[in-house]
Amino acid sequence: MLERSCYGLGLAALSQLLGSDQAQASTRGPMPRAKRVIFLFQSGAPSQMDLWDYKPLLNKMNGKELPDSVRQGQRLTGMSANQSSMPLVGSPYAFKQYGRSGAWVSELLPHTAKIVDDLCVVKSMHTDAINHGPGVCFFQTGSQFPGRPSIGAWVNYGLGTESEDLPGFVVLITKDKSGQPLVSNYWGSGFLPSEFQATRFRSGSDPILYLENPPGLAAETRRRSLDTLAALHRGLMTESADPQLEARIKQYELAYRMQIAAPEATDLSSEPDHIFELYGEEAREPGTYAANCLLARRLAERGVRFIQLYHQDWDHHDHLPKELPRLCKETDQATAALVTDLKQRGLLDDTLVVWAGEFGRTNYCQGKLTADDFGRDHHPKCFTIWMAGGGAKPGTVHGETDEFCYNIVDKAVSVFDLNATMLHLLGIDHTALAFRYQGRDFRLTDVHGQVMRDLTAG
What we know:
Number of domains: 1
Number of helices: 13
Strand content: 15-25%
Distance between the termini: 33 Å
Oligomer: single chain
């Protein structure tokens, strides 16, 4: 009861009673617009000027050198810093304007283009990281260094879960994908109690490892075992006020309840044919991006607070004209279907959907530019993300980059700003959601970040 009290204040009080190292401040903020988050993370960094940020000047100057006045001496990765030439490369894909905002959308995203009036497109994102590991870590935890709690863990800690029988934070990863590795600290709890870390759902007949009873162990026997184990842990708590003991008890109990709830939630066979047509036939195959989008909707319906999807292989240093269309084909229909499906069920109003990668791509070619092939290096100075639902301002294009798509010229949004805004939409004051660890109060946005009011509705 204490854990699930308003904005986690009960848990803070419990922490004080236990004499633990926690010092969670009041997280009271505005009235929440969102109850939950579905984060569609496109790992590897999609190319913004080939999908969202239309730059006709790049096509006119295709093959010409990136002007020094544009680069302004900014750092580059080791993969292209020593190139003797940095030829600009325009997008080979056609763009059109859509919706009341007039947002430019590439021909590679025909399904997403149809829902652009539901989107808040942010073309002025920037990040401090220039390589994948630190970049993903920074986006997910607010730090380029491993060990901090992920945003899903922070939200789970601050708000708790709406479901008694499912985790508050779930991670889904598209199966059979290559690309930059995904490591568990991206969705870990860091120094928060371990009960707030994500539970990863895998594809196949056994989506959650070690959930089922071992062969020969009856449910009644497991129940007695858990009761005895909980009694032993509570006995230890009388000697040592260790919050990890309480977290362990809760995790065992949740696993027991999930034995019934999780198989039902992950079984997509009950979905009607028209839903599979909406998401695409790949949604029938567990572990695909389409199936994970559909599963995310089912988990949102059942009260999971934070659902994180990862889709790898967006890292196109070469062969972009071949690889980028393939990635868009894998994700475009299901992404648009998720927003549409949430909307038709009345869930989009209080579900915040976020689509993002860890940074953007360069406007110049990495390696050799040919008539039909090129690649783009990492670019942290500007890229595009979008939000939908949950209080995000629909039908909006926020921010602007220069005509070379290299620098931001209006309404910059940092990763800290985005995280502050997401927490704001969940009704959390990002400056107050804190945890004391090793003598210091930590928070997701560290000492940075401001709520971007232009991105919120009303």
